[in-house]
Amino acid sequence: MKIRTVFSCQSCGYQSPKWLGRCPDCNNWNTFAEEDFATPSSAKAKERVSLYKDEPVLLKDVEAEEEHRLKTDITELDRVLGAGVMPGSVVLIGGDPGVGKSTVALQISYQLTRKGVKVLYVSGEESVTQTKLRAKRITGGKESSQLFIVNQTDLSLILEYIKKINPQVVIIDSIQVIFEPTISSSPGSVSQVKECAGILTQLAKSTGTSIFIIGHVTKEGAIAGPRVLEHIVDTVLYFEGDRFSIYRILRAVKNRFGSTNEIGVFEMTSNGLTEVKNPSQIFLSERPKDVSGSVVVSILEGTRPLLVEIQALVSKANFGYAQRRAQGFDYNRLTLLIAVLEKRIGLHLAAEDIFVNVAGGIKIEDPAADLAVCVAAASAFREKLVIPETVVLGEVGLAGEIRSISQAALRINEAEKLGFKRCVLPQNNYKNMKFKKDNIELIPVSILKEALEITLSLPAGRQGGNK
Asked: How far apart are CA 266 and CA 226, in angstroms?
């Protein structure tokens, strides 16, 4: 086996015989690291090929039966996965340090073993004793006879354990510390991560074993290692939320067996992650009263409507250059909406600092929140309150028109359940509704100016403790 040195891009896996400041493939700077590259022998290659040998067959001869998914009984997780864990699937879970990746993996293990499913938990970063203490805290001291735990980082030994125990579910915590002995580079390198993930995926597809892989993230928020890692696996889940916040949002950015629009909401407690059954009520529980710049909008995450609060703060710029800041909302979309308010409504916002925040730590991509952002900014600028118990829906166009949104009836039903009395919605959605509501007043609007006149009719009260 001939060994030589190459420089590999830690972002995309591009290899070069010399160090480069900028990767010619992904255009990232300072991502090259020196690694040992070994050319595998022909004997080893034949051994690897014969390990997972599969002959081609005609597609019409393949018997496709509906797979029975494994339910974890964690409703929020099952929804994101697409009604449960698919046998033979590979799920990658990423997130910031301390966000709850290992905690949810251990909870998955415990819930599955309660149903008689055999699980192997491979902990490469914690000893067996540490994992035992964490499991005792999460499960309340309850034991399981189907959960096997091992502290190992050698992939060849892990494969032997899997062959010996024959589990239905395997959890790898984490992929960055696992290494393949035939590759001379260090654990966590591009070569190691890509090769280990490929071998585990082959194992899952050939044996029907479901595998959960935990992955670290970089400072930019992407999963560490080559981008090909996300292409290899079947499902990619991201944990969102600040480690110092009690709420966590689990989002699927790739799912071959379900929708990528679903989210799961959890609360971090001393006993692990607890499901949040009614996220809308949680996100609105601390909403202030008699304060300008606060608007409620009903967004859609997959099939689930969520009521969230949009907060805006407008203040005079002190240094001549006005700032635009957005937390949980797209910055480019915010600047576009501010431009519409200036041009179509006539608000003088060029010399104003504008800050927009989505309360609760959730990130909004739904265009139905456009009108709520505009109303919140105008409310904060004019110091006028939004009419109480009002939900605002609508997409805003460059001409100041209010465009229709999807699933308007589903959003209105969620607002009605939480006691809201009024809903401002696009004119076209109002026309197409097959039935009207009795407990909530529907107010159709067609242009932005009309929406602002309807929602901003009350003067803001004195704030900040002023008498």
From this structure: 29
The reported pLDDT for the residue numbered 6 is 84
Across-strand partners of 4?
37
- Angle made by CA atoms 247, 253, 257, in degrees to the nearest 5: 110
Q: What is the pLDDT of residue 27?
A: 84
Q: What is the pLDDT of residue 37?
A: 65
Q: Which CATH architecture has domain 71-277?
A: 3-Layer(aba) Sandwich (3.40)
Whether the model clears a pTM of 0.70, i.e. scores above it, the answer is yes
The reply to whether CATH 3.30.230.10 applies to domain 282-459 is yes
Q: What is the dihedral of CA 54, 59, 60, 66, to 10 degrees?
A: 80
User: Residue 352: what are its φ and ψ, rounded to 5°?
Assistant: -115, 135
Token output for 379: 């409310």
Residues of the chain with pLDDT under 50: 1, 41-52, 460-467
String of DSSP letters for 80-126: HHTSSBPTT-EEEEEE-TTSSHHHHHHHHHHHHHTTT--EEEEESSS
Cα separation values, 61 from 53, 57, 64, Å: 19, 7, 9
Q: What residue ranges do the domains of the chain occupy?
A: 1-42, 71-277, 282-459
pLDDT for 51: 47
Bridge partners for 141 per DSSP: none
